[in-house]
Specification:
Cyclopropane-fatty-acyl-phospholipid synthase; Rossmann fold; methyltransferase activity; 19% strand; lipid metabolism; 3-stranded antiparallel β-sheet; alpha+beta; 5 helices
Length: 134
């Protein structure tokens, strides 16, 4: 975060878009680490707060994780519908892995164990206040 702070212009805004966890963890599911997001971790509110403390003013924190379940299920429906054509280029193993990823991710969002956040940060605060558009 120090690098972002150093390169952000005065008056500029920084949008942090991330999947986050309801708990502070330092590791990720081994399967996700191996096949989907190598070297990843899902930060918690506390971990993000600690990383921005003294560097940024938090202008807005939007949690739309409950909606992301629908996105993942739509991706699954599109993928499954297109599978007859895709199967010419991809193996059944790929199909099972992609299905597993989409379904377990959707379940994690549905259970609210993980969230999808967009956090707007500024260096010194927006003088007139920040008005989020939703």
């Amino acid at each position: 975060m120090k690098i972002v702070h150093n390169v952000l212009k005065d008056g500029g805004l920084f949008l942090l878009h991330t999947i986050g966890s309801s708990r502070s963890l330092v590791d990720t599911d081994p399967w996700i680490q191996k096949y989907i997001f190598p070297n990843s971790m899902l930060p918690s509110i506390a971990q993000i707060g600690k990383s921005i403390e003294g560097l940024f003013v938090m202008e807005d924190w939007h949690n739309f994780g409950a909606d992301y379940d629908k996105t993942l299920m739509a991706w699954w429906e599109n993928f499954n519908r297109a599978w007859p054509e895709l199967s010419k280029s991809y193996s059944d193993r790929f199909y099972r892995m992609w299905k597993y990823y989409l379904m377990t991710s959707a379940a994690s969002f549905r259970s609210r164990r993980i969230q999808l956040w967009q956090i707007v940060l500024s260096k010194n605060g927006v003088k007139s206040g920040y008005a989020p558009v939703r």
